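fyi for ur records
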Amino acid sequence: MRQLLTILLLLCSSYFSFAQDKQEVLTSIKDQMEIIDGYIEFDTFYLDPEEFLDKMADHGAELEGYYEHDRLKKIKRKVSTRSANITTEFYFWNDQLIYVNYKQRPYLTATDENGRKVLDYSRSFTKYESKHFFSNGDEIDKETVGSPLTEVTTETDFIGYANKMKGLLDNKFYNKGTYDALQGKWVFVQNTEDYIIFEGTIRFNFYNGKFANRLKTRIEEGVLVCFFPMDDRMYRYKIENIDENVLTLVDLFSNEEFMYAKVD
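which gave:
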């Protein structure tokens, strides 16, 4: 009997110690969120829908990253589906995800000029909200309010998605000088019917004056990596030279050099 009581006391002690530790972590996370929300001089970076979506949203999408002292602190994302706005906020501390606020906001209805009920895409309300707290890559607490929409897939893999979006934003932020220089139209000097256009981090290829394809890009230590969103094809080019007039890329697979002239 004494041995059983000892075991029960140890289990209770461990449980209360775990609960206390968890509460301390949650308090720390909320303090960190308050600090982040108190920043007033963020560097704000945007991703266009084509930069972070593989499939376009029915009524548009937005994604903003907020940097303080050259480190990502917060991401705000809105994706407008056929029936609702899906909004998500991600908070980071020391480059680690600490909190996610996820909302499903169906559109309100309005009456059109013919007296019919239609969706008003400019107005919505929160039907479902979930709050997620993370520590060292693990979810430690979750709060939900309301019921999720049946016509919308409720997100669950917040850590994987947050890290992916952080990677896209960090790539654009830390290489902003190179991306700024790349923007616009570049004509292949050996055949002026072939050209490329950079918009944000997207590269559009044109051959014989006709659109061929688009590729997402990232920059890795002076190497321009171009890849298709939905498959494994990837091309790597050393940025040999870039200025306001000339762009020179060297294909790292074939060692072939490509020279482009900037077109205003």
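The chain has four helices and 16 strands. thats all i got for now
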